[in-house]
Amino acid sequence: MPTSTTNTTSITTSMVITQFAKNQANGHGEDLEKLTNECKELLLSLPKEKGWRTPYIYKYQGFWCQPQEIQAIISFQKHFQPRDTDVILASIPKSGTTWLKALSFAIMNRKQFAISSNNHPLLASNPHDLVPFFEYKLYANKQVPDLSKLPDPRLFATHVPFSSLQDSIKKSNCRIIYICRNPFDTFISSWIFSNKLRSENVPPLALEETFKMYCKGLVGFGPFWDHMLGYWKESLEKPDKVLFLKYEDMKEDVTFYLKKIAKFLGCPFSMEEEKEGVVEGIARLCSFEKMKDLEVNKTGKSIKNFENKHLFRKGEVGDWVNYLSPSMVKQLSQLAEEKLGGSGIEFKVFP
Ligand code: A3P
User: Fold this and answer.
1) Hey, whose CA ends up nearest to atom 22 of ligand 1?
2) What is the mean pLDDT of the chain?
3) Which of 33, 64, 328, 350 has its CA 20 to 30 A from that of 285?
4) Which segments cross the bilayer (predicted)?
5) With a threshold of 0.85, does the pTM exceed it?
6) What's residue 6's pLDDT?
């Protein structure tokens, strides 16, 4: 009786997937039932480990990711059509993405929106609303947006590692700016941020346990070393395509890096602009203090359901000294040396 066998098999498969989604979602607010069956099936085949904010994170194409992100990334990989004029900002979470979005938006749109204007979009909108993530906004929730009507140059952002960007992006002349931050501060920033996002009925993430996960590479879009090395190698091979920046360097001399970004993007500041103080104006407009104090960043929500206020914490280099024990410092130093030593990626870790 072939028909009934087929039915039985298909019912069983769908029941397994439904039960799987319920089990995974259990108690952590992650609604896996919203995923496509294709994505649920894929998850069943992927290695998984305990997640920071979701019960599990999954290893997709060599990096760790939450289920809803995987679905959005697959859609982005399948549907996004790059243009040579596109600019993509890339980072691993908590490396200074919000800041880079603000700076890049201000540079690229400075003819349209004067930096000194009281109506500058950065005064009324969070940078994540002005520069959308592929995986959290554009291709999230099963959306396939029509981006063809957006005027050039289009500005997007992603946390996807370089190795998982589709060939069309790699082969096009679109430009990528990567921001990277020392793993000590990135870990602490991620740990505190994740704890703020957890719902009240879920216990906080313990520092020691989360640190162990981070050192095993188990963090969203991690391992962090692979993420950094992917963009770093491409920036060495194709410096006109990938600009590799470090948060700490930018904190030290933001005007130098503003000029570098503008030049890389093909819109260098003119002598006149420099004399008029446009570069310093952008630095001030996008400064941590200025952005943290804006009403939109105190009250609004831009990425998923996250409150903007959590995106602006301390904005300093070296805050990790207030959290990490000497043995954690030793372990993470050794790990960074083992994974990044000799690559040319080095960090300033003290203020
Ligand atoms: P801390 O948690 O150490 O304060 P991301 O934007 O990738 O999520 O990174 C968040 C980190 O960047 C946070 O670090 C945050 O405070 C800091 N940050 C946000 N806006 C900034 C700005 N305008 N200038 C410098 N740092 C900023």
Assistant:
1) 288
2) 92
3) 350
4) none
5) yes
6) 45
